[in-house]
Amino acid sequence: MDNDQFVKIVTLDLPKSSTLEVYRDIFLFLCYTGLSFCDAIDLKHSDIKNGIIALKRKKTKVQTKQFLAKQTLELIWKYKGVIPEDRILPKRSLDKMNLNLKLIAAKTEIDFSLSTYTARRYFRQSIFESGIRERLVIKSLMGHTSRNDIDSHYFNVSDAVLKDAKKILQKHFKKLLR
């Protein structure tokens, strides 16, 4: 997915009561965070402290930490108090999610099948396009392991480094929607 297609999804005019709105919001959350669907869909407000998600990825058990961009926080605030169980996103199945993403693709004239995996790939591409090049920062944001990486022994991905990454990504996403 390229930036023009991303903008088409963000700006797609959907009625508030549209079923597709929820699926688009979940997809955008994945685009803004790079989290996998299974990691994102069960997140609770208690998992976020001061705009920071720190979690152990379900699939890999790798610890990941991310300062959330303004765009992500806006999606979280949209559903705060509306969803039971303190969830930050409405609970949906992966099958229904990917089915509804196909409908969104059709409405935006995107000529390939959108999926939750597309969102994760888009986040990785956004990291690159925004100029973040430090491998351990990328691995941290993506929730990949760095155990066998020599830098993991000598380079610390501090909160300051992650805050800088958040600001850079936030600016990148904002620039796309001007």
Automatic annotation (TrEMBL):
Domain Tyr recombinase stretches: 1-167
Domain of life of the native organism: Bacteria
Keywords linked to the UniProt accession: DNA recombination
Zinc found in the keyword field: no
Record's keyword annotation contains Signal: no
Protein name as annotated: Tyr recombinase domain-containing protein
Organism: Flavivirga jejuensis
